[in-house]
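In this supplementary section we document a worked example of the pipeline. Step one takes a protein sequence of length 189 as its only input; no multiple sequence alignment statistics are reported here. Step two produces a three-dimensional model, which step three serialises into structure tokens for compact storage. The input and output of this example are shown verbatim.
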Amino acid sequence: MKRRVRSLISMSLVAGSLMMYSCGDSKKEKDDAVSHEDHEMHENSDHTHSEKTMAAATAEFENEVVKKAFNQYLEVKDALVQTDAEAAAEAAKELQASLEENNPEIAVIAGNIAAEKDVNKQREIFSELTAAMDPVLKQEISSGKIYKQFCPMAFEGKGDYWYSTSEEIRNPYFGDKMLKCGRVDETIE
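The serialised model returned by step three reads:
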């Protein structure tokens, strides 16, 4: 019995260590997060979520449709960070409408997010959306930066990507459960 307890404790410590290593934050990041959260609490609540997202978008694109689509993608991402299935569906619906003529393949993926009510299923489809947006964003960016971020813990340790206009990690696959889990894997300029 004691062996089992020791083994269980050992396995728990190893698993906890791996999780801390994979998604661990340095002290500076934690301090920055506290500072960022304090700042967010003092923001004017009159601004809508989408206005904040669009103001944060620093990347410029050669194509106005892609620019609009990227900003809507960010709205979907931000809704998933907030674990808000309804907001994610609404933003995805707008993305779908924007892309129906110019990129029907991506529009279908956005439509799948819009039709889904379960936030975890939306997150799975968001993974497809991110992969589909990759070549479009890389081809059309004309100035600014987009950060391709990666969470090694997403989807049972398989890991997955998303895009952001900030180096700061805000994980759409876990939301507040593991908000800062991830790293910047690529900067698209």
